[in-house]
Amino acid sequence: MMAGFGHTTRRHPRSRGRNWSRSGPDRAALGIIGLICAIAGFFVLGIVLGPIAIVSGWLGMGRRWNGAQPVPALVAVVLGGIDTLLAIVWLAGATVPASGMW
To answer: Which pTM value belongs to this model?
Structure first.
């Protein structure tokens, strides 16, 4: 039984920096995706792209407000909120009965 050779994996089953699943996107990519959605939301589909930017930015920040946040993720959350708010105001203004063609 020389396989163990005195070194077991019970103390450190994984290396220190790899305790998460490597199948999904990392935080930096989520922050950049959120930033792109937030910027695009100002031009088209703000009611859809705004919440997507908020969620991906929040996940890019690591689902917490404290600590050092990556800048793209924080900007994505803020701009996504502005996108969503402007889209709701625009939709509320478009549904006023007196704002028709005549």
So the answer is: 0.69
